[in-house]
Specification:
By secondary structure, the protein is mostly helical. The chain has one domain (about 5-85). About 45% of the residues lie in helices and about 10% in strands. It has helices at about 15, 30, 45-60, 70-90; strands spanning about 5, 65. A two-stranded parallel sheet has the order 1-2. It is elongated and about 65 Å long. Bound molecules: flavin-adenine dinucleotide. Flavin-adenine dinucleotide (FAD) binds near residues 6, 22 and 24.
Length: about 90
C-alpha cells in the first residue's frame, strides 16, 4: 500500500504559513518521521528547518504528492467558467 498526500496548498502548508521566525516548542526527535533524523544546531527546530526536513522526508520516502496551489485552483475555476461562457454563447 502506498500513501498519497493531497493538500490544497504546498507540502506542509500549515507550517509554511506559520510566522516566518517561528521556533517549535518540541525537540527535533519528536518531530521526526520514521528513521530519518532531523538534525538542527538549535535545541528546538525553526520553521525553515522543519520545512526542509519534511520536504526531504517526502523525497526520501518517495511520497506521491498532489499539491493544489491557489493558482492551480484559480486556473481550473477560470477554465470551467470560460467553457461555460463559450457554451452560453454557442461557440464552445
Ligand atoms: C505557531 C504554531 C507552532 C506550533 N508548534 C508546535 C510544536 O512545537 N510542536 C508540536 O507538536 N505542535 C506544534 N504546533 C501544532 C502542530 O503544528 C499541529 O498540531 C499539526 O500541524 C497538526 O497536524 P495536522 O496534520 O493534523 O494538521 P495541519 O498541519 O494543519 O495540516 C492540515 C493540512 O490540510 C490542508 N487542507 C485543509 N483543507 C483542505 C482541503 N479542503 N483540501 C485539501 N487540503 C486541505 C491544509 O493546507 C494543511 O496543509 C504548532 C502550531 C502552530 C500554529
Amino acid at each position: 500500500m502506498r500513501a498519497l498526500v493531497i493538500d490544497k496548498g504546498c507540502l506542509c502548508n500549515s507550517i509554511f504559513h506559520y510566522p516566518v521566525n517561528m521556533v517549535f516548542f518540541t525537540t527535533p526527535e519528536l518531530l521526526e518521521i520514521g528513521d530519518l533524523p532531523l538534525v538542527s544546531p538549535n535545541e528546538k527546530p525553526t520553521r525553515v528547518e522543519a520545512l526542509k526536513y519534511y520536504r526531504r522526508a517526502a523525497e526520501h520516502y518517495e511520497l506521491e504528492l498532489r499539491c493544489l496551489s491557489w493558482w492551480f485552483a484559480w486556473r481550473q475555476r477560470r477554465e470551467l467558467y470560460c467553457a461555460h461562457e463559450d457554451r452560453e454563447r454557442g461557440s464552445g
